[in-house]
Design brief:
Blueprint lengths: L2 H11 L2 H15 L4 E7 L2 E7 L2 H7 L4 E2 L7 E7 L17 E5 L2 E6 L5 E6 L4 E6 L6 H5 L3 H8 L4 E5 L1 E5 L2 E5 L7 H10 L3 E4 L2 E5 L4 E4 L3 E4 L8 H4 L5 E4 L2 E7 L10 E10 L7 E4 L2 H15 L4 H12 L4 E5 L7 H11 L1
Parallel strand pairs: 2-4, 4-8, 11-18, 18-20
Antiparallel strand pairs: 1-2, 1-3, 5-6, 6-7, 7-8, 9-13, 10-11, 10-12, 13-14, 14-18, 15-17, 16-17, 19-20
Length: about 350
Amino acid sequence: MTPARKAGRCASLMTASHRIRQEIAAVFASSEVPIEAQARCGPFGLRLGFASRELADTFLPAYIQSAPETVDLDLRFITGDHHDLSGLVPEAAEKPRLLIEDGIYSVWQPAVIPVLFAIDLTAKRGIAWLPTGEAPPWIRSRPAISLIHALMHETPWCAVHGAAVGSRAGFTLLAGEGHSGKTTAALACAKAGWRYAGDDFVAVDSQSGRIEPLFCSARLRPALVETFRNFIGKTSAVSDFNGEPRHELSLADLGDRIGGGRLRATFIPRRRGAVTPAFTPARQSDAFRALLPTTAYELPGWPNEIADKVARIAGLAPVFFADTGTQPMEIPAAFAHQLDRL
């Protein structure tokens, strides 16, 4: 067999996970990163590298920047101009693809604006590759969350779709579908001085009930900007994807008030016509149904494990439906009173 044929045969036999592992290693070996930062994301410490100032400006505002004690993930953000990773794109490029194999986790998300996430769990190295240089709005607000999900797989931690805020009485996890009022309630509490752990996805330890923020971002509907104007200050440009405009906010200025604590109650916000916030006892199964669908949909891989963790989280604390009323700034006092009663 000639050397050329032998090399071709070896290439054809190479597994997908091996190719991805090689490409991740090549990204880290072949490029100097002009912009670096450190951040904490849930229970993990991150070292972030951005191949351009534009990428840093796009993603860094969402991260809680601080020097971690340990680096659990070295993460690079790159575009098609920096590295050609087209060989990792599946043949049916219009379809999403998930690969979990031999310590490699990789997600191809085509959508309108494609992106590839991949992590070598053994080397603790990950990449976020934007072929066109653009990123969908929801990825800008929770960058590379699927890779954090992969890091959590063999731990009690779970990234769950919800908001979380805390006072001296403990933290409440706000669970529910989009447009249910989670962001309004979370920002109202943060404005009133509460600790803020997120309005979209938060990290929860399914054994201890510890809550930690994943990001310091928030996505606010334009109609609510005036309500929170003196709190959020200057707003960013409005992103509009699928007819859902949002202000992409960074709440990094909250400083030490970006943080976590112990889960005390789960509130399921909904609007049922109450003028002032009102609470109705709910069941563990209600919390499970409020948390699981979007969590499982947005975080590819290990659906049974996700469901098990969410079920445990739903049973860690009392659950209430919360009609948040018509005056957002009445929410913090009502939440505090409900937590104090527990």
